[in-house]
Amino acid sequence: MDDPYTTLGVAKTASQDEIRRAYRKLAKKHHPDLNPGDTKAEDHFKKISAANGLLSDADKRGRFDRGEIDAGGQERAAQPSYREHAQGDSGRRYSRAEAPGQGWDGQDFSDIFGTMFSQGRRSGADHRARGDDERYSLTTSFLDAVNGATRRLTLPDGRTLDVKIPAGAVDGVVMRLKGQGGRGLNDGPAGDAMIEIHVAPHPFFERLGQDIRLVLPVTLSEAVLGAAVEVRTPRGKVSMRIPAGSDSGTELRLRGRGVPSTKNQEAGDLYATLRIFVGPPDPALADFLRTWSPETPVDPRRFMEDTP
Amino acid sequence: MISFDVLIARTAGLCPVDLHRWISNKWVRPDGDAGHYAFHEIDVARVRLIFELRDDLDVNEAALPVVLSLLDQLYDARRRMRELGDALGDLAPAPLRQALIDRLSGPNAGSNA
Questions:
Q1: A231-259 pLDDT, tens per residue?
Q2: Residues A86-99: pLDDT tens digits?
Q3: Where are the domains of chain A?
Q4: ipTM value of the model?
Q5: Domain A206-291 class?
Q6: A213 lies within 8 A of chain B by CB
Q7: DSSP H helical segments within chain A, as ranges?
Q8: Residues of B in contact with A95 (CB under 8 A)
């Protein structure tokens, strides 16, 4: 048995840390699973692990240094390495082949004989590879994202792609167009185009999940007397009734007029928050207000007084 | 075949949490379901391999799937080579076997000449 310090290439005074580092460095080089078929590496690895087994244990190392035990006998009981299982028939258990446990097929023969015996080494010319996935970004309007649309994207190589944006698409969603990415090598399949959708904001619609909100300006008389007004929704105008006596901040709902339903989501609602718009100065209105005494006087700032 | 607990007991330094994670990552594929795993010899050796790769060879768990995949492919290739060699040994007539040996080990080995 060689001197374990020599095997690991460290001084007798080496710290435990130095020993550990020396062992790791050698193990990376000589581990049998990284050197299949190289029996010298395997023997060497056994010596390295035996030396490490002795020196990494401060107690055993002390006894060895004092001459109480010798380097022999520290060798680990020979356990078959993973390599010995993996190359044998039992190794099929972790085979990367599509259907583990099956035998050879014609492709294997052409793979092996094609490269090993006949056409030989045409530096990978027969190598087929799938093309790369390519990433693009597409900015769409708010309404196209809500309603769905088809947009044409021109790629750097001049090709055009028609991207179908599904109704209800959210900002950041990635569409995968199969086979529209980079070309494969030697007739290999093309990669996919991955298109990230960005949704531009809308001047007055705001999306919250499946619901859409907007602020709806109304006149003083529409709010006080009630009215039927037209409201813009993502899919055209609809008529909405403003109840008499509405106020700024009153929230009205149009059921099902938010983001349309999709496979996984029900349609959302449209919420209109009223904001009363007084308009330019009007002498008649001013005269009326000067003489008007409310039936129920209110202090709209009262809540501010009560709140610390 | 041995159980989860026996395997843990036999592998100094291996914690059950790690082994559970390796199983759920499919890096180790014992028979049976959680609570009743049965490890074949090759599974035991593979656990030791993963343990050594991580703790002695500094392969962190993020890189382990790549390393395992390459090792699995290497062993597949070597197993196939062995099968091919066995088949040639059984079926190829002696002169062909000798010609193959000459070709593959001769001075022109590795070239098309």
A1: 999 989 999 999 999 999 999 999 999 99
A2: 877 778 788 876 55
A3: 4-85, 134-199, 206-291
A4: 0.72
A5: mainly beta
A6: no
A7: 4-8, 16-30, 39-55, 58-65, 82-86, 106-116, 142-147, 220-225, 283-291, 302-306
A8: 72, 76, 79
